[in-house]
Input
Amino acid sequence: MHCVEAVDNALAAAGITGAKARLGYADIPDTLATPGSLSRLDKELEARGFTRITDAGTLLIERAKRSILEHVRDEDCHFNLSACIQDHLGVDYSTLSKLFSAREGRTIEQYHIAQRIEYVKELLSYGEMNISEVADKAGYSSVAHLSRQFKTITGMTPTAYLKGAPLRIPLNEV
Output
């Protein structure tokens, strides 16, 4: 089941109507956000493997992650990562970077690289592009750069991955 659908179902099961889930968050009108309804929602979300984010720091990190995912997949973005994040979130990159590292145990750049490699794996798995085209689409300056980074992160080259990589394990779970 798609995660947005799962959250919509949790909202409905908690009796919260009029709220709509989107990727990464749900807008719940204040009139529906009673302690009882939020408690029911927390139980419904937990049953589906989700948690409601209640503190500002965690919310900011989740917004940063969404921004990074958008940056990775946006071929038309010509800004560097820090400028993109700062522009999308309106938060000083240095401040966000410190918070991200403290809470996530890795830097924003490490998370960004992991997401780029996930995107490369996804593109390779479609079988519609060669490695050079994948490198270009994923924003790498060269196939050599992509190959070095891919091997550093996954332990194998993109070619080895294509020739029969074991089941793909998302880097988010590492």
Summary: The radius of gyration is 19 Å. The chain is about 60% helix and 5% strand. The chain has three domains: 3-47, 56-105, 111-173. The longest strand covers residues 20-22.
